[in-house]
Amino acid sequence: MENLALIDSFSEFKDDKQIDRVTLMAILEDVFRNALKKKYGSDDNFDIIVNPDKGDLEIWRNRIVVANGEVEDPNEEISLNEARKIEPDFEIGEDVSEEVKLIDLGRRSILALRQNLISKIHEHDNTIIYKQFKDLEGEIYTAEVHHIRHRAVILLDDDGNEIILPKEKQIPSDFFRKGDNVRGIIESVDLKGNKPTIIMSRAANIFLEKLFEQEIPEVFDGLITVKKVVRIPGEKAKVAVDSYDDRIDPVGACVGMKGSRIHGIVRELGNENIDVINYTSNLTLYITRALSPAKVTSVKIDDEKKRAEVILRPEEVSKAIGRGGHNIRLAGQLTGYEIDVLREGAEEDVELSEFSDEIEGWIIEEFSKIGLDTAKSVLEHDINDLVKRTDLEEETIRDVINILKEEFEE
Asked: Hey, which end of the chain has fewer CB within 10 Å, N or C?
């Protein structure tokens, strides 16, 4: 196989991988030089002439003519008799340039060279893909479901690039079929063994933030700023928004008439319940808004401990806590303060922690998870409701209620 024929045999890579001819030639030269080093021990005295326009490549070996029988390094020296076979008028001390054909390298070297060339082109292609997707980190991307595995969904984009959507980065309600188009955020891109690993996420907070940018023109244009996003994927989210233009209502603009603007985002996220609230630097007001839809009576803030004690009417407590404690947990994450909920008129109430001698700590923790930290807050709830909302057995809950009732009967 001649040099030109080898180059032409790789035109498929140039076309499939969109590698330009100049880059292909540079890779070819590098591969040929490695082959020359293995064959001759050094490539220092070789000239490789690349012609990108013609797609051709020539290899010339340069040697010095020495007297017959005095050749010490056959790679860099040539005897007078051998030199005169090339040109009859060569003299001792002159330079001889001789073209090297692929056949001179040997069949095994040609096969190794071909494999090395394939490897180098793939490596170049992977580097390009890595750089391309590294620039897309934190941005929304769409790809098609190619294969569904137990722990991940494998996606392919229009260029055939593989993107992984792990199970833990999906929304719990996500259900995909082969051929479905999936939107998510490019969360991370890493090179593992020269192959780029591209991870997509639909559960990341930034995915919701970018959906706001994509779906709400005022956010895209910078008229409205998304200050912070917190989520329990597929369940509930809180988004704090602000505008420096007093004429713009940031919450109204994001939600739209009858929820028209935010409806598409909610649907994309598997009907995730999204609360959009006005951001404010007034911490008391911010915490009050964060606990929406509950109506807060008063807020007491401990900046040192980063805690907030919130007083509500009894009928507002369950709204503040939310199903599964989601509302109060997200309000705490949004504001950066741990929020304790107290009922109005609960001065005679007793903290559950005071019963640690009679009630095991893990049981108290189960009640705390759903926002019930005091005796009265537990007693106000129906037993069946407590069984549904905690991981406790009915018998355990009845024992706790009996202990708490004794406290107030005394």
From this structure: C
